[in-house]
Write a structure and sequence with these properties.
single chain, two-stranded antiparallel sheet, about 0% helix, mainly beta
Length: about 60
Amino acid sequence: MEVVSKDGCDSLYVKVSEINSSGANVGYTNETTAGLAAGQKAILMLDTYNEAADQFRLSQISCY
């Protein structure tokens, strides 16, 4: 996932739901990074070990 910080943030947190082929929520995964400057891009690698997950849906994003 690519995120661009508008004003910068000391800590960035992203949480996504794992969705299976029938649309059911089968879990979640998350990722963090720190020290983003205003306008800086962050590349977050959201990994899953859940073989039932076919796609991700953004659940939460926090910049503080």
